[in-house]
Write a structure and sequence with these properties.
The protein has 791 residues and is of the alpha/beta class. It contains 24 helices and 30 strands. It has a seven-stranded mixed β-barrel. Strands 6-5-2-3-4-21 form a six-stranded mixed β-sheet, sandwiched between helices. The longest helix is centred in the first third of the chain and has 19 residues, at 44-62. It catalyses: citrate = D-threo-isocitrate. Pathway: Carbohydrate metabolism; tricarboxylic acid cycle; isocitrate from oxaloacetate: step 2/2. Residues 70-516 form the Aconitase/3-isopropylmalate dehydratase large subunit alpha/beta/alpha domain.
Length: 791
């Protein structure tokens, strides 16, 4: 890596790692362990020594036992001596070890990095092409009547060539590793190659916590946060609280690691983990595979948790060895005193789950925290009127695409085949990586899936993030799908708001796809074989690691090639657009802004900035802004994408009305409900409102990542001091925000609302800005502030 050449950044970067010649304490004499096979000059030893040095300082200051999460977080403090450390209160400046970006979010992150003017990234960083590949399970004209993984990947390479070339050349120029289309899903690639116990990484995807299955503190962020870290600056995070989940017992029969997190989601709800790291502990840990722990951490994003983590154990050691990282395994073993919680540490909340008593959970529809135990699912479905006929089953995704997952699902399919039974509905399989695909093909699992009627999709996200060209069910037709994904918001998978999506384990999905009935209980119900005899499926089984080792498959990694690479963006492009800095704050209170929309009920980042077919515009801010808030329900009329233009009196789409306001120089605000912005880390949900003229977002409560993203882009994320004041705001009111000229941490602002009849009301709103974030606001964005300080 080369020096940054920006005032102050070189000194900050020098604190990132210790010299390779440092004298080690707990890891003295242990062989050096590269951070990955593709980064032989970067060593985990250096990171561990830095953690140990920082923790010596922190332990003296706090003088109390530490949770494992605290050890990793505080072990990455930029200034362990001077940093205030109060869980749930302090804003910490941290030094993550690496950055990972998926292709849909990487476009904007790289564009912002280019705008910063810096020559190269300061920490190891990677781009993963997994989001732009559309999956199919039926013949398609645009694929010469072919479908499935090979046809889908070929078309994606053609349709997305401009974006892939941009990311590839940018990676080469700025020192970012590039994983080509077909390599696999970002989180599986990270687990196989980059994650290590005790490390810290940020990723521009909300399911980055998947790496917690290997003991890493892995946190989902927006692209602007990634730019900070890639630029060598400290990364800011509010000191998380720590929720402890004690696991006892052992999973058996049809129960799986997915059921642990589905159960936790049912307990904590979609916002119960907000502002906290979920740390698992207890005697049950050693009964879960490393990839199973990854599944649990991955879906922890659905409870709003900052991240989820497991302490280092033998299952992690075995996985590191199996993925050709034995030096890292031995190093972690030597460092293990720092890779587990201290005896006597205290959690802010404790949940206990006896896995011996846990039954399969099927969560949904429309929200991932509606947990239905298998024994109650049929009754719940009939009572609620959910469609009982299953229309599709889909397994894989970043949550459940390990070798163990695939083998357990295949063991169910194999039983059906032996009885002459095939899947009754379309059945799709998404391998998590090229390594997983090649290994399950070698071991005969793909053959089993295809014989039972399944379609193997590309090594990519596919239907999980809405990249599903579904043609067998018309939009608006109520239907049920069952997936092993992590998220099931309305219209997320197939753009059909009437699709009832349920999430569960891959083996349960396979059973439902074979039975074709949501009321089917494989623990007690039978299937009728080709010979007319009834069979009871036996519980699934699968090896946690392939007995013959992993087959790496095709090489899909591109190493950085140096500064000579040319990065071009065509001004006429409809896919990519260089960024123009946002205007700084004008120094005045906000006066008489219009309410663009008062959103009612759940308003996730999918509602604010849909994925699916819109993913193609993720690198073009103006084009992607045409989907802003088109999924949000307007409280005034109960419709989506229909708001009144208060300048013309006519109704129009939300983005169209916003553009009209922007053209007229009329500021506007958004009013929202609880947990506004839950779900994905996509910063487009903040960039789009900012681009189209928004000034503030007033809600009952925010999801963590979205609130930060709004701040990063110079917007005002505000919460009602009294949530009942949400009802005071009318859809046609004018909103003024008083107190901006004296904006300070912890000091509420005052909202003055003016109704169409001229009467007014006022109430207090809170904010969570600290001093540094106020600088972002005043400069118009965090990127503007960074540029100003580096000149």
């Amino acid at each position: 890596m080369q020096a940054l050449g920006r005032k102050g950044l070189a000194q900050a970067r020098s604190r990132l790692v210790r010299s390779n010649d440092a004298s080690f304490a707990s890891i003295a004499g242990v062989d050096k362990a590269p951070m990955s096979r593709v980064e032989p000059d970067q060593y985990i030893n250096d990171r561990y020594q830095a953690i140990e040095d920082r923790l010596k300082v922190v332990r003296k200051r706090l003088n109390r036992p530490l949770t494992y999460a605290e050890k990793v977080v505080y072990g990455h403090l930029d200034d362990p001596e001077g940093q205030e450390i109060k869980r749930g209160v302090s804003y910490l400046n941290l030094r993550p070890d690496r950055v990972a970006m998926q292709d849909a979010t990487a476009q904007m992150a790289v564009l912002q990095f280019i705008a910063s003017g810096l020559p190269q990234t300061a920490v190891p960083s990677t781009i993963h092409c997994d989001h732009l590949i559309e999956g199919t399970t039926a013949p398609q004209a645009d694929r010469a009547n072919a479908f499935g993984g090979k046809a889908d990947l070929e078309l994606a390479n053609k349709q997305n060539k401009e974006v892939y070339d941009f990311l590839s050349t940018a990676g080469s120029k700025y020192g970012i590793g590039f994983w080509k289309p077909g390599s696999g899903i970002i989180h599986q690639i990270v687990l196989e190659n980059y994650a290590f116990p005790g490390g810290m990484m940020i990723g521009t995807d909300s399911h980055t916590p998947n790496a917690g299955g290997l003991g890493m503190c892995a946190i989902g962020v927006g692209g602007a946060d990634a730019v900070d870290v890639m630029a060598g600056m400290p990364w800011e995070l509010k000191a998380p609280k720590v929720i402890g989940v004690k696991l006892t017992g052992k999973l058996s029969a049809w129960a799986s690691p997915k059921d642990v997190i589905c159960k936790v989601a049912g307990i904590l709800t979609v916002k119960g983990g907000t502002g906290a790291i979920v740390e698992y502990f207890g005697p049950g840990l050693d009964n879960i595979s490393c990839t199973g722990m990854g599944t649990i951490c991955n879906m922890g994003a659905e409870i709003g948790a900052t991240t989820s983590m497991f302490p280092f154990n033998r299952r992690m050691y075995d996985y590191l060895v199996a993925t050709a990282r034995e030096p890292a395994a031995k190093l972690a073993e030597a460092f293990s005193e720092h890779l587990r919680a201290d005896e006597g540490c205290e959690y802010d909340q404790v949940i206990e789950i006896n896995m011996s008593e846990l039954e399969p959970q099927i969560n949904g529809p429309f929200t991932p925290d509606l947990a239905n135990p298998l024994s109650q699912l049929a009754d719940n479905a009939r009572r609620e009127g959910w469609p009982l006929e299953v229309s599709a089953g889909l397994i894989g995704s970043c949550t459940n695409s390990s070798y163990e997952d695939m083998m357990r699902a295949a063991s169910v399919a194999k039983q059906a085949l032996a009885a002459g039974i095939k899947a009754k509905v379309p059945f799709a399989i998404s391998p998590g990586s090229e390594q997983i695909r090649a290994t399950i093909e070698r071991d005969g699992l793909i053959e089993i899936f295809e014989k039972v009627g399944g379609t193997v999709l590309a090594n990519a996200c596919g239907p999980c993030i809405g990249q599903w060209k579904r043609t067998e069910v018309a939009k608006g037709v109520p239907n049920t799908i069952v997936t092993s994904f992590n998220r099931n918001f309305a219209a997320r998978n197939d753009a059909n708001p009437a699709t009832h999506a349920f999430v569960t384990s891959p083996e349960m999905v396979t059973a439902f796809a074979i039975a074709g009935d949501l009321s089917f209980n494989p623990e007690r119900d039978t299937l009728v074989g080709a010979d007319g005899k009834e069979i009871l499926l036996q519980p699934p089984h699968g090896d946690e690691l392939p007995p013959r080792g992993f087959d790496p498959g095709e090489e899909t990694y591109q190493a950085p090639g140096g500064h000579a690479a040319t990065v071009k963006v065509d001004p006429a492009s409809q896919r990519l657009q260089l960024l123009t800095p946002f205007q700084p704050w004008d120094g005045r209170d906000l006066e008489e802004a219009l309410v663009l929309i008062k959103a009612k009920g759940k308003c996730t980042t999918d509602h604010i900035s849909m994925a699916g077919p819109w993913l193609k515009y993720r690198g073009h801010l103006d084009n992607i802004s045409n989907n802003m808030l088109i999924g949000a329900v307007n409280a005034e009329n109960g419709k989506v994408n229909s708001v009144k233009n208060q300048l013309s009196g006519e109704y129009g789409g939300v983005p169209d009305v916003a553009r009209a306001y922007k053209a007229a120089g009329q500021p506007w605000v958004v009013i929202g409900d609880e947990n506004y912005g839950e779900g994905s880390s996509r910063e487009h949900a903040a960039l789009e409102p900012r681009h189209l003229g928004a000034r503030a977002v007033l809600v009952k409560s925010f999801a963590r990542i979205h609130e930060t993203n709004l701040k990063k882009q110079g917007l005002l994320p505000l919460t009602f001091a009294n949530p009942a004041d949400y009802d005071k705001v009318g859809p046609f009111d004018r909103i003024s925000i008083k107190g901006l000229t004296s904006l300070t941490p912890g000091k509420p602002l005052t909202v003055v609302g003016k109704r169409p009849d001229g009467t007014t009301y006022d109430f207090l709103v809170n904010h969570t800005f600290n001093d540094n974030q106020i600088v972002w606001f005043k400069h118009g964005s965090a990127l503007n502030a960074m540029s100003a300080t580096s000149k």
